[in-house]
Amino acid sequence: MSVALSRPVVRRRSGRRLPASFVVGVVLLGVLALAAVLAPVLVSSPNQLHLGSALQGPSAAHPFGTDEYGRDVLGRVLVATGTDLEIGLFCVLPALFIGTVLGTLAGYFGGWLDMALMRIVDVLVAFPFMVLVIAIVAALGVGITNMFIAVAAVAWVSYARLARSEVQVIRQLDYIRAARVLGFSHRRILSRHVLPNVVVQPLVYCTSDFVGYILLCSALGYLGLGVQPPNAEWGTMIADGKNFLAQAPWISIFPGCAIVVVGIACILVGNSLGDVLRPEAKK
Amino acid sequence: MTEPILQLTDVSKSFPIRAERGRGMPRLQRERLHALQRVSLKVSEGETLGIVGESGCGKSTLAKLLVRLLQPDSGQVFYRGRELKTVASRDLRRIQMVFQNPYGSLNPRLTIGNAVAEPLRVYELVDRKGVSAEVDRLLEQVGLASAIKDRYPLELSGGQCQRVAIARALAVRPEILIADEAVSSLDVSVQAQILNLLADLRDALNLTVIAISHDLGVIEYLCDRIGVMYLGHLVEWGTGTDVLKQPGHPYTRGLLESVPSLDPSNRSADSGVRGELPSAITLPEGCVFRPRCPRAQGECIKPPPTINLNDEHWANCFFATDVQRDGAKHDAAAS
Amino acid sequence: MNRALSPGVTPRPTPAATASDPATLLAVRDLSVVYRRAHAVVHAVDSVSFSVGRGKIVGIVGESGSGKTTVIRAIMRLLRQPPAEVPGGEILFEGQDLLALTPRQMRAVRGARIAQIFQDPFASLNPVVPVGKQIAEAARYRRGGSRGDVRGRVLEVMNLVGIPDARRRLKMYPDELSGGLRQRVAMASALMLSPGLLLADEPTTALDVTIQDQILKLLRSLRDELGTSVIIVTHDLGVVAQTCDHVIVMYAGRVVENGPVAQVLLSPAHPYTRALLDAIPHGVGRDSRLRPIPGAPPDLSSLPAGCAFADRCRFAVERCRTEVPPLEEHSAGHFSACIRRAELSNEL
């Protein structure tokens, strides 16, 4: 009864070759992470004032120059790496997690769960994002942790919607029906069949949100609601340097470049993340 | 007479319509799409039943009811004498299904090996060490080499995917296999391979098969018994020979005449069934086939009776015996 | 593709009639189409030749990957180039080579002299425009005329394709119509400018068999009443048997058999046609056995030397794998690309 194995539709790729852009992006992020980890070792007292050497241009001693308080910009940029990466992660991850889970459950089970969730989403979406975040931070008090809470409370909504619409497509596919006919529990279907297919889009989405939240934090810092001085953070460094753009542009430029680098890394990873996570979808 | 393995009594199912048309005011009253209307049938163990009908006839809804993906609005579904909704999940696996779209029925992220092994693991049908061997055995049973275990569905052809789907369904040792348009998406040559496979498996494993299709050729090849559906009603029922050679219902007759014959010299100018399918929201009064029936008369405005044409063959038409007799005359004249 | 003829083999007579033959509407000669992908060149259509007479219905039948849809796209010049390329061939329509026309000239042909209907009528109709308007649109930009004239013509073609209650349906939207009606609307649009040739790509595959029956009979009556030639692309031999005058059987991008429908279906001259007929579960009862075709169609980017069907053919011999068999005349008007067709005539 055996029939000769007919030719496959797609040639199986010999080993998995990751796209170049993905590798570059990941390496870049890796370097940044390394810098963040090593910063406390490499840099001593980044917040120490040295008023005598204020506003000096890039030199051998200070490759990125010094700011208006005489602090080494390079050192502060390095130290801020940790802070900003942390900000990006802690803003994105809770929202991603909460949003994807809630959206998946709502989309999968439908009914009152879906209706309830969508009404909450409708309400939250009616408010401008920044306004809500600021309001919550103002209510909870200033500080970086409260900022994380505020963002998580507001940002989960877009992930929820994204996950929900993905689930609604997948739910109709026969392999989900087959799993139910095979008698698999909802838990198994959700964890093994639905989530792995649903999570790709939100993950790609969050790579672009990552940089967005770093910028959000600098905006909040500008308003006095984010990272408090004298702690180093790229956004606040840029804001602080704005008064010296003519005479000492390096104070703002170098932290700015750091954000750009993170942004590029995220885009590189984000663009190819979809392909990396779904190699079997390449025909 | 042994108890039927599956039985439906007076099953009806309808769906609410969301009145979203995008134009004008949304409808205020709740309209319903009547998918199944008081369908009753019995399936004996080991036999192959074919359900044939065109779009809107309710056959997909029927399939979903049999695997408990849907619950009937009224009427009961019995499996081995017990109502389906009281049967434990673990026993429901005895009724399995193969779907139409071969690629859609496999999770694109799972390798073939994992897809077939999963039910084995969930139900602990073999111990851990035996899983791989059992997967090999199942794949071989459907005509696939075990090397295919590491591939992903999108690397396979449609026919191969369908074989994998069958292997996965067989993993849980089902008694009843429902093939819901299982070969409709396949090329003719591959379709024939899968049909032969299903026939062989059915004989080797003594499966009860319910084949749901719009293709009369497929039904004829596989089935002992045929039920013809139209607009949610079961309009004719009998053995394969009875229904296909001596139909008693005008719709069955029209359907058979519509199938394009492979003989180019046999071309008729009249359509098998004229007109369009009416909406399933407001069903025609009385016999649902009345608006398109060439024999429709005054009395057809009343619900048609079930006329027994022989012990195992019935049709829901006032004129069933006439249809059968006229059909026989027509066929004799044509040959 | 260049294929040197072995010595001693006479050049084959092309099944396509010459361009000057007035009874021939369309003559395709040695048409080849390739797709250039990143790592491979896919030979979708390989030296295909056939002709369509005036007032004839020709069927092109084959399974997926046979190239039949690509041929239609090539005729309508709707291939995306790149990645598609047409390395060779001519498509002579009413004496003109369509492949040599400028895009502007081709636009004048498309819709007006050659029209097409597609498999999924819902996808080929605009869901937000009423059907009457869509049918009218096909003509409005070409023929001019007052709105009354156009509307009159629209109602005329709607009656021609058997749309009941046409006046009321003018304002309806595609989603309010059934599949069969939508296909009729698509046909009405196609007929607005009275094309000489209608290309129908799997026109009934998505329809119920009773509706398919109606549509096929409609195509025949259109041919009878208007003299429109039709090319039907399908995988269903039954459709071919009921509708076509001539049939072209394609496999792996090549024509393997070509001839009057009665001859090809009742006395096939190629093992693939025979195998297709044997694989159809038509009239095959419960106790007999279907004869499937083992294996699967070849990869079009790496076709084997010799006959593309050899690997799956139960009559293949060594010679079949060395050279591509030419399409040769088997009997009057009936061509086959099988070198063993004479010996096998009893078994096919």
Number of domains of chain A: 1
Class per helix and strand makeup of chain C: alpha/beta
The overall pLDDT average of chain A reads: 83
Write down the CATH class of the largest domain in chain C.
Alpha Beta
CATH topology of the largest domain in chain C: Rossmann fold
Order of helices and strands of chain A: HHHHHHHHHH
Taken from the alpha-carbon principal axes, the silhouette of chain A is elongated
Total number of helices of chain A: 10
Q: What does the radius of gyration of chain C come to?
A: 21 Å
Content of β-strand of chain C: 15-25%
Low-confidence stretches of chain A: 1-15
Count of spatially separate domains of chain C: 2
Question: Would you tell me the structural class of the helices and strands of chain A?
Answer: mainly alpha
Task: Tell me the layout of helices and strands.
The complex is a heterotrimer of chains A (283), B (335) and C (348).
Chain A: H1 20-42, H2 73-109, H3 111-126, H4 129-140, H5 144-171, H6 174-181, H7 186-198, H8 200-222, H9 234-240, H10 250-277
Helix pairs in contact in A: 1-2, 1-10, 2-3, 2-5, 2-7, 2-8, 2-10, 3-5, 4-5, 5-7, 5-8, 6-7, 8-9, 8-10, 9-10
Chain B: E1 6-16, E2 32-43, E3 48-52, H1 59-66, E4 74-79, E5 82-83, H2 89-92, E6 95-98, H3 112-123, H4 131-141, H5 158-171, E7 176-180, H6 188-205, E8 208-213, H7 216-222, E9 225-230, E10 233-239, H8 240-245, H9 250-258, E11 307-310, E12 313-315, H10 320-334
Parallel strand pairs in B: 3-8, 3-9, 6-7, 7-8
Antiparallel strand pairs in B: 1-2, 1-4, 4-5, 9-10, 10-12, 11-12
Helix pairs in contact in B: 3-4, 3-5, 4-5, 5-6
Chain C: E1 24-36, E2 41-53, E3 57-61, H1 68-75, E4 84-93, E5 96-97, H2 103-109, E6 114-117, H3 121-124, H4 131-143, H5 147-160, H6 166-169, H7 179-191, E7 197-201, H8 209-226, E8 229-234, H9 237-243, E9 246-251, E10 254-260, H10 261-266, H11 271-279, E11 328-331, E12 334-336
Parallel strand pairs in C: 3-8, 3-9, 6-7, 7-8
Antiparallel strand pairs in C: 1-2, 1-4, 4-5, 9-10, 10-12, 11-12
Helix pairs in contact in C: 4-5, 4-7, 5-7
